[in-house]
Each structure stands twice: as C-alpha cells, then as structure tokens.
Amino acid sequence: MGHLILRVTIKLLFAPIILFALYVQFHGDYGPGGGFQAGVTLAAAFILHALGFGLDRCQKVIPPGWLPVGMALGVLIYAGTGIYTMLLGGNFLDYDVIQPDSHHHAGQHIGIIVVELGVGLAVAATMLQIFYAFAAREPEPMDDAW
Amino acid sequence: MLLDDLPVLPVILPLVAAPVCLLLPNNRLAGSFATLVAWIALVLSAMLLHTVAVVGPVEYALGGWASPLGIIYRVDLAGAIVMTLVALMASVTFPYAIESAREEIVPSQTSAFFAMFLIVFAGLMGVVATGDAFNVFVFLEISSLSTYTLVAMGAKRDRRALTAAFTYLVLGTIGATFFVIGLGLLYQVTGTLNMIDLHDRLAGVDNKVVRAGYAFILTGLGLKLAMFPLHRWLPAAYTYAPSPVTAFLASTSTKVAIYAMLRFLFTVFGFNFGFIDVAFTFFLILGLIGMFYASLIAIFREDVKMILAYSSVAQIGYMLLGISFATVDGVAAALVHVVNHAVMKTTLFLAVGAVFYALGSHRLSAYRGLGKRMPVTTAVFLIGGLSLIGVPLTGGFISKWVLVAAAFNSVLAVPSLVIVLMIVASSLLAVAYIGRIAWTMLLEEPVGRQPKPVPMMMVVPMVLMAALTIYLGIDAATLVSLCRQAAETLLSTGLGFGGTS
C-alpha cells in the first residue's frame, strides 16, 4: 500500500471537489460558472480518484459504457430545451415562453439551469471518456520488444 | 408555427438526431435513421429555398434576442442554394453509406459513424444559415472536428487514414485559428460580430488592424477550402477516408468554405473596403496555378481516389477564378460550379466506392476491363468524368460555359482571352486523367477475381446522381438564373446598398 499521503489526500478532497462542482453548476445562472466548468470539475474528481486508486475502481462506479449515453443525453437536454420552447411557440432557446407570466424572467432562469445541466452532463462524460480512452489503452509492443 | 422556424430547423434537426443516433444499436437502424433525418432536412431546405426565392432573405433570432445583440440566422438565396445542395448530398450519401459502411467501418463504430456524419451535416448547414460571424467559426469547427473523426475511421481498410486525419487536424486547426484571430481583430475594431452590423461599421474604416483581420480570415478560409498552396491536407484525407465520407466531403465541405469566403468578401467587407482587390488578384493567380498544378499531378497518380482528389483541388481553382472577376457573372459562375462540381464529384466518388466494395481496391490496375464486369458503375463513372471534362449535355459544360462568358465580360489585369484559353487548356488536362481511367476501364482486358455484386442501396444513389449530372446539363436555365439572382444579392450588399436587399 504505497502512496499513502496521496491516497489520504485524494480521499479527503474527493467529496469537496464534487460539492464545489455542484456549486459551480447551480451558481451558473447568477454569476461566473456554469455547466462547462462544473462538468470539468466533476470529472476531475473521478480522474483524481482513478489516478490514486487505479482505473478499475473508478470504472466500477462509472462503467465506460455509460459515458456515450451521458454525452448524448447532455446534448439532448440542451437541444431538447430549445425544441420545447419552439413547441411552446417561441423561437429556438427563447426561455421566456417557459414562464410567460413572470415579471422577473423566471423562464430565463429555468431555461438556463436546464441547459447548463445538459452541458455539465455532456462535458463531464466527455472528459471521463477521454481519460478512459488514454488510461485504458494497452501499450503497443515496440518493434524491438521481441 | 414551425414554418416560422424554417431557417433554423434544417440545422438543429441533424444536431438533435446525432446524439439519438449514437444511442442506437450498431446495425442498419442507425444508418436508416440518419437517412430519414437527411431526407426531412432536404425537404425543409427545399421549402426554405422556395420561401427565400419568393419573399427574399429570411431572418431568425435565436432565443428571441434581436440582432445585432443576439445571434441571428439569416438565409438569403446563395445560402438557401448551398443548404439545399448540402442536404441533397446528405440524402444521397447516407443510404449509400449503410451498405458501404458495413465493409469499410469497424462494426462496433457504426452508430458513432452515423452520429458523426449527422454532426458534420449539422455543422455545414449551420455555417451557411448563420448571420453571425463568430457562429460561422463555431459551426466550421463542429463540422471540421467530426470530419477528422470520419476520415480516421477509414483506418479499418488502410492505416494511412490515421496520418491523413492527423495532417488534416493540424492544418484544419491552423486554418480555424487564423480565422478566429481575424474575427478577434475585427471585433476589436467594431465591437460587433453580426455580419450586417460588421458591414455597416466597417464602412469607410481602413487601417492596419482591419487589413490584418481581413488577411487572417481569408487565409484561414483558404486553408479550409483547399486553395492551391494550402491544399496539402486534401488529397490524403479524401483518399483514405471511407468512400461515402469522401463523396460527402468532396461535394460539401470545401463548397461551404467557398460560401463562407463569399459571405466575408461581399457581405462583411464589401467593395467599400479598398484592400479587397488584393484577394481578387490572389484568387486569380492562385486559381489559375491550382488548375494546372493539381491537374498535372492527377495525371500521374495510380490511385483513382487520389486522382479525383487532386482534380477537386483543380476544380476549386475554377470557383476562385469566378470569384476573382468580382462581377455578378463571375460570382454566379462560381456558384453554378459549386453546385455542378458537387454533383459530379459525388457521382464519381460513389462510383469509386462501388468499385472498392466489389474489388477492394482503388488502384488503377483494379479498374482493368471494368466496363465488361460492372457496366452500370462504369457508365456512372464515365458520366461523372465527362462532366468533369466539360462535355456538352453534362453539368460541367454549363459551369465552364458560364465561367468563360463571365471572363469575357469582365475587365481584368490579364486579358480575358488568355484566361479563357487557360480554362480550356486545363480542361484538356482533365481529358488526360479521366481518359486514362476510361481507357483502363473500357479497353483493357479484365484480370483477377470476379467482382462482388454491388447492393441496390449503393447503385440507386449513384445512378440518381449521374442522372442529375445530365439533367443539370440539359435544363441549366433554372440553376443559372437562381445563381445569378443569388450573386446579385451578394454583390448589392457588397456595394453598400444596405443589408436588407
């Protein structure tokens, strides 16, 4: 059991990183932040865990097969919001039609939060997918290996 | 309700369909779904073309934010023509790809392959539909990034697809970077990214920053459209990509880049910008050199796909030549050639893909005596080839005719007659490289094994495209007059008659 300091630190940091990712995610419609940064932060937590404890344990929690679904769902949530507003009679991504009676643009808030959720999901899945693709790669035998 | 959304629908439909397609199982379902989407997009684009031809340019404010603050989609006649063209090419190549991909793609990647195909499609439609300069960059990158993936997927049959895709990735990214640097400079000067607004604010402004921005944008787009000295990525990418990908890319991606170039030259900068003539001089010279250089290389290649790829570089020369005249006739000729070349190149590449399906090779030696063994494919290839040369009764003849007429009607640094003679001379080079393939196909004795029968799903799109090549050569009036109107709209904006014309 090597890298004791690293592993303890990772265990300490793991939950706060995810919490921070969620904070960035839901803070996105008022201030700096949003789905992209949140997605990257969330994925960073899992990548950090995989670096410290091995890829297998990370892949037990998030199997590689889920990631394409996550990416596709993220884009669908984003585009689906746009189509939903179109079906309500507005333009593509015109969030105001979600809550037309609101005086302080509640529709804009709802719309952007849903869209950012889609972005966050897609980005987190993509980051992890890239990491898995590199980390799970079997090293190719060199020409002079034999 | 949905009719109001017509400018945006052909773009978001494939964009939404792509993730759905990724989730579908790896069999025919993914391809059939993509085909269905392409057909609906074709109908929508045709409706859009009709609307634009009748009522003039249409605008659409994304998210309800009006221009110039919000992102708007603005489709005029030139845009509607190119959008319909891209949708048409997608509708023909996607069904073809269902069978072809089973041979050329790793089976576990089938649904990803079609998802990527749909994203390229969405990106190319977006570049054309948008009226926002930065949005052009975003969509250009959406389409380019997925194109790199598609090219790399050819690695199942030939590992060289990987290096081709990587070269394309590096050069394409340099092009995109140049483009975005240029946009940044313009944004610094004007504080806006809306194309019409940019045009208004750039009026009368001519300083080093704007000139640098202009040069960066043109160079970046030049890389994307494979203008002669910047064409190095194209032959390898087209040669090693899977056949349906080559057919789709050859007919759309460089064409859309040409469209973006026209947009920036005439809608954003316009003739008030004194520096604009530099581009025309460059296009004239580089177009002419490209026509000869690429055709000459094509004559000496042994790989049929490579020959056609170099021929694409040469054909882009004709389009640049048309733009360089900077007249309504010239730009109209470029647009006519954009359409005709797209149709004929798809015809040729689909035929090449069918031969690859049957014999597993692109080498010229595999084409020996093909006329006896695969008569339909040979006929289709020859029709495409004749159109490439510019033989009467094919679309290629019309584009050369219009181009020659435009050359005679414009005042240029080089005498018109010289340019016309050079157009004719470079057509003779096309006779040489097409003739070489035709000779092998028709007059040599067949060797080797019997070709595999080609499925109907591949034959029908190919025959349809060949028929369209001939149709465009016989009933050319509709296309030519549409392109003329489109060019008039483009140039009248360029001359400063307001953005609403």
From TrEMBL, chain A:
<feature type="transmembrane region" description="Helical">
    <location>
        <begin position="110"/>
        <end position="134"/>
    </location>
</feature>
<keyword id="KW-0472">Membrane</keyword>
<dbReference type="InterPro" id="IPR007182">
    <property type="entry name" value="MnhB"/>
</dbReference>
<comment type="similarity">
    <text>Belongs to the CPA3 antiporters (TC 2.A.63) subunit B family.</text>
</comment>
<protein>
    <submittedName>
        <fullName>Na(+)/H(+) antiporter subunit B</fullName>
    </submittedName>
</protein>
<keyword id="KW-1133">Transmembrane helix</keyword>
<feature type="transmembrane region" description="Helical">
    <location>
        <begin position="34"/>
        <end position="55"/>
    </location>
</feature>
<keyword id="KW-0812">Transmembrane</keyword>
<feature type="transmembrane region" description="Helical">
    <location>
        <begin position="12"/>
        <end position="28"/>
    </location>
</feature>
<keyword id="KW-1003">Cell membrane</keyword>
<dbReference type="Pfam" id="PF04039">
    <property type="entry name" value="MnhB"/>
</dbReference>
<feature type="transmembrane region" description="Helical">
    <location>
        <begin position="67"/>
        <end position="90"/>
    </location>
</feature>
<feature type="domain" description="Na+/H+ antiporter MnhB subunit-related protein">
    <location>
        <begin position="5"/>
        <end position="128"/>
    </location>
</feature>
<dbReference type="InterPro" id="IPR050622">
    <property type="entry name" value="CPA3_antiporter_subunitB"/>
</dbReference>
TrEMBL record, chain B:
<feature type="transmembrane region" description="Helical">
    <location>
        <begin position="134"/>
        <end position="153"/>
    </location>
</feature>
<dbReference type="InterPro" id="IPR003918">
    <property type="entry name" value="NADH_UbQ_OxRdtase"/>
</dbReference>
<feature type="transmembrane region" description="Helical">
    <location>
        <begin position="307"/>
        <end position="326"/>
    </location>
</feature>
<keyword id="KW-0472">Membrane</keyword>
<feature type="transmembrane region" description="Helical">
    <location>
        <begin position="6"/>
        <end position="24"/>
    </location>
</feature>
<feature type="transmembrane region" description="Helical">
    <location>
        <begin position="165"/>
        <end position="189"/>
    </location>
</feature>
<protein>
    <submittedName>
        <fullName>Monovalent cation/H+ antiporter subunit D family protein</fullName>
    </submittedName>
</protein>
<keyword id="KW-0812">Transmembrane</keyword>
<dbReference type="InterPro" id="IPR050586">
    <property type="entry name" value="CPA3_Na-H_Antiporter_D"/>
</dbReference>
<feature type="transmembrane region" description="Helical">
    <location>
        <begin position="282"/>
        <end position="300"/>
    </location>
</feature>
<feature type="transmembrane region" description="Helical">
    <location>
        <begin position="411"/>
        <end position="434"/>
    </location>
</feature>
<feature type="transmembrane region" description="Helical">
    <location>
        <begin position="110"/>
        <end position="128"/>
    </location>
</feature>
<dbReference type="Pfam" id="PF00361">
    <property type="entry name" value="Proton_antipo_M"/>
</dbReference>
<comment type="similarity">
    <text>Belongs to the CPA3 antiporters (TC 2.A.63) subunit D family.</text>
</comment>
<feature type="transmembrane region" description="Helical">
    <location>
        <begin position="36"/>
        <end position="57"/>
    </location>
</feature>
<feature type="transmembrane region" description="Helical">
    <location>
        <begin position="454"/>
        <end position="474"/>
    </location>
</feature>
<feature type="domain" description="NADH:quinone oxidoreductase/Mrp antiporter transmembrane">
    <location>
        <begin position="132"/>
        <end position="418"/>
    </location>
</feature>
<feature type="transmembrane region" description="Helical">
    <location>
        <begin position="338"/>
        <end position="359"/>
    </location>
</feature>
<keyword id="KW-1133">Transmembrane helix</keyword>
<dbReference type="InterPro" id="IPR001750">
    <property type="entry name" value="ND/Mrp_TM"/>
</dbReference>
<keyword id="KW-1003">Cell membrane</keyword>
<feature type="transmembrane region" description="Helical">
    <location>
        <begin position="379"/>
        <end position="399"/>
    </location>
</feature>
